[in-house]
């Protein structure tokens, strides 16, 4: 896969190198950020490798650069402006992570970095691992978070919550005010570049990569199977680096139930007490009675010890809970 190249051009070598390094650390796409302080070297490199986008300052701007990168030129401005000299701007004096978010959001609104969909939305190279349970307080979300981190040691993995009230925003700090609900809105209306917006949305907490869950439950209440298919189609793009998606499903089955059949594996955490066991059996009976044997065959029931939430979410990886999650993943063939 050929990476798209974004060049950063400025006379301040220290600034431009640190900015490139920061962008690369924040980036989850197949993009390469390269620093240049020499116009001659920039033009020579462009003639040999084709630069997809150029970020530069007003002081370094030349008519030649405007001509070469007329559609893919962004100014790093010392003023907090959206446009200057008819060019889109990014405010340079802000944290690198925020500057990267603004860059990806700008890309989603512009024609920059147009990513080509695969000829079909085939996700055969994408592993979908679902976690669902009709039983409350069974460690479902803790299992999903731990599984995402364990699996990321083997392949790039992204955690996605389909919970309407996940509570995760109280534990995981986000560098964006947007959520997965905004991504679904964008996909439905098809007005922007969804892949660039997805890149601006993905957050990192150590080895955990995740999409910020919704703050407002209504943002996900009306979710349809078509919305989920459009989301997974993004991960069928060549530029997508994630090979595994861990999906934490909430209690609203009407929206996500069609997705169950797309999952490679469904983990069903349970509790060893009569009411919980009865709920689990009723759910399995429903699958049988509605001829959903394929989903039933993919379902792995598991009983988990109480998770340690003292250092959320890292503490889910250690102790008896972490060992239990690793055991279930190994039993299913993922570790």
In short:
The protein is built from 13 helices and 13 strands. By secondary structure, it is α/β, with parallel strands linked by helices.
Describe this structure in words.
This protein is of the alpha/beta class. The protein is built from 13 helices and 13 strands. The protein has a 6-stranded mixed beta sheet, sandwiched between helices. The protein has a 5-stranded parallel beta sheet with strand order 8-11-7-12-13, with helices on both faces.
Which fold name is given in CATH as the topology of the largest domain? Rossmann fold
Strand order in space, largest sheet: 2-1-3-4-6-5
Just give the CATH class of the largest domain: Alpha Beta
Provide the β-strand percentage band. 15-25%
Helix content: 25-40%
The named CATH superfamily of the largest domain: P-loop containing nucleotide triphosphate hydrolases
Domain module tally: 2
Succession of helices and strands: EHEHEHEEEHEHEHHEEHHEHEHHEH
Main β-sheet, in a few words? 6 strands, mixed
Number of strands: 13
Radius of gyration, CA atoms, in whole angstroms: 22 Å
Arithmetic mean of pLDDT: 88
Query: Quaternary arrangement of the chains shown?
Result: single chain
Shape: elongated
Number of helices: 13
């Amino acid at each position: 896969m050929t990476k798209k190249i974004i060049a950063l051009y400025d006379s301040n070598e220290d600034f431009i190198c640190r900015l490139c390094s920061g962008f690369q650390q924040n980036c989850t796409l197949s993009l390469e950020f390269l620093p240049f302080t020499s116009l001659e070297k920039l033009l020579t490199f462009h003639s040999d490798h084709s630069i997809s986008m150029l970020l530069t300052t007003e002081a370094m701007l030349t008519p030649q650069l405007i001509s070469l990168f007329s559609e893919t030129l962004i100014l790093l401005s010392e003023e907090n402006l959206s446009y200057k000299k008819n060019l889109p701007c990014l405010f340079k004096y802000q944290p690198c992570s925020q500057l990267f978010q603004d860059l990806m959001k700008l890309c989603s609104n512009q024609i920059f970095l147009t990513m080509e969909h695969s000829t079909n939305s085939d996700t055969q190279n994408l592993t979908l691992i679902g976690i669902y349970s009709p039983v409350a307080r069974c460690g479902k979300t803790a299992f999903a978070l731990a599984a995402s981190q364990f699996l990321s040691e083997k392949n790039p993995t992204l955690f996605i919550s389909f919970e309407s009230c996940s509570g995760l925003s109280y534990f995981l700090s986000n560098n964006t005010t947007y959520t997965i609900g905004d991504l679904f809105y964008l996909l439905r209306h098809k007005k922007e570049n969804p892949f660039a917006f997805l890149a601006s949305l993905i957050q990192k907490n150590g080895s955990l990569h995740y999409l910020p869950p919704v703050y407002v439950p209504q943002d996900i209440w009306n979710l349809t199977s078509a919305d989920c298919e459009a989301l997974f189609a993004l991960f069928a793009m060549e530029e997508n680096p994630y090979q595994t998606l861990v999906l934490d499903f909430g209690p609203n089955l009407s929206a996500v139930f069609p997705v169950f059949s797309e999952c490679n594996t469904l983990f069903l955490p349970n509790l060893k007490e009569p009411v919980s066991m009865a709920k689990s059996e009723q759910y399995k009976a429903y699958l049988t009675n509605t001829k959903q044997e394929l989903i039933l065959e993919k379902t792995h029931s598991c009983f988990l010890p109480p998770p340690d939430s003292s250092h959320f979410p890292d503490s889910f990886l250690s102790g008896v809970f972490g060992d239990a999650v690793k055991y279930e993943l190994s039993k299913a063939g993922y570790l």
